[in-house]
Amino acid sequence: MSRRDLTKLIRSDVQSMHAYAIQPSQGMVKLDAMENPHRLPAALQAELGQRLGALPLNRYPGERINDLRRALAEYARMPEGFEIMLGNGSDELISLIAMACDVPGACILAPEPGFVMYAMSAQLQGLKFVGVALTKDFELDEAAMLAAIAQHQPAVIHIAYPNNPTANLWNDEVIEKIIEAAPGLVVIDEAYQPFSSRSWGDRIARYPNVLLMRTLSKFGLAGVRIGYLIGPKAVVGEIDKLRPPYNVSVLNCECALFALEHQDVFAAQAKAVREERAALQTALAALPAVRSWPSDANMILVRVPDAQKTFDGMKSRGVLVKNVSKMNPLLANCLRLTVGTADENAQMLAALQACL
After folding, report:
1. What CATH homologous superfamily does 6-42+264-355 map to?
2. pTM (predicted TM-score)
3. What is the pLDDT of residues 321-335, one digit of tens each?
């Protein structure tokens, strides 16, 4: 029997895609993935270890998942009449939303540059994706957004608040106009809520077509993979039908519950990151060859004379950041810097200055 090329069984559009790349970081100052740089204190590590060790790993996740749903609903101050569902990170929720809204002629719309998973989830689901360019200062282009909504009638509009990789919050009045013009769902993605000065959490009840999406990754649990979606019961209930059974493990669930029980520790970590962000922005503003933009996240977008040369130079000095310069024409020569600890930020600044 002749050997066959089994890759021919794979969809052609999948074959043409590039897998999500994770940069090797061993031995580096890792400031490329917007992670919380702070670990649990030693005493809490020991306490969590005992709890995880006692879990019935021979059983599928059970009622404890609902305990986490209730704890997150309380943490997020979920409005009356709303529902919450959990995802294996917000990436899974983005995919489930696309799957749920895959009706004939449907499309997904989002500003660009933005989070890559919005377009990728649409493509994998066979949905049309419409990207609407931001202004040169990375603000929402109100006229272009409203025109695209009128033309394409999207089933889903993703609004990252703040945006990734630009780190800025957009004008709330423009977002309100987008919500009012939207014929379908508007997903407000607040992945960076712990570091943001504003939130839509207390406003979603005003709009029947708005879903609020958050993650515990930036809260401090990037390795735990917990995302959550809040919205009207009828809508979330339908999307929840597509969720794989047992998509949140007992280990992840218990870690998240433990973190919420100690949310004061994580709040203090977020405060430290915000303070470091302010110091880093001040230092970057003093570098004449660097332009930086305001940030409400745990990252700062900067433009340098030569992004690839600067990225390579920083990497050779043991500092890993994200080169986003080829993601979108608006990001030409831009790097995304994650806010780390004071020591990590000092090393990053020294490496950046040396490369300029």
Report:
1. Aspartate Aminotransferase, domain 1 (3.90.1150.10)
2. 0.94
3. 999 999 999 999 999
